[in-house]
Amino acid sequence: SDYDIIERFGRISRNLSHYHSGSSKKQGLYRIK
């Protein structure tokens, strides 16, 4: 159903945003050193 597709897409986008924020934090730590 359409709802299943929306649910799956939302979960993927949350994972991507979480991964992106984590990678940017790591870059910030490297910059400080």
Can you give a write-up of this model?
The chain has 33 residues and is mostly helical. The chain has one helix spanning 2-32. It has one domain (1-33). It is rod-shaped, with a radius of gyration of 15 Å.
Give a short overview.
With 33 residues, the chain is mostly helical. It contains one helix and no strands.
What is the topological layout?
Layout lengths: L1 H31 L1
Protein name: Maturase K
GO cellular component, one term: chloroplast
Keywords: Chloroplast, mRNA processing, Plastid, RNA-binding, tRNA processing
Q: Give the structural class.
A: mainly alpha
Helix and strand run: H
Average per-residue pLDDT, rounded, comes to: 78
Strand content: under 5%
**What is the 3D shape?**
rod-shaped
Count of domain modules: 1
Low-confidence stretches: none
- Alpha-carbon distance between the two ends: 50 Å
For the CA atoms, what is the radius of gyration? 15 Å
Question: Can you count the beta strands?
Answer: 0
Number of helices: 1
Characterize the main sheet: none
**Share of residues in helices:** over 70%
Organism: Crocus sativus (Saffron)
GO biological process, one term: mRNA processing
Subcellular location: Plastid
Keywords: Chloroplast, mRNA processing, Plastid, RNA-binding, tRNA processing
Which terms would index this structure?
33 residues, rod-shaped, single chain, mainly alpha
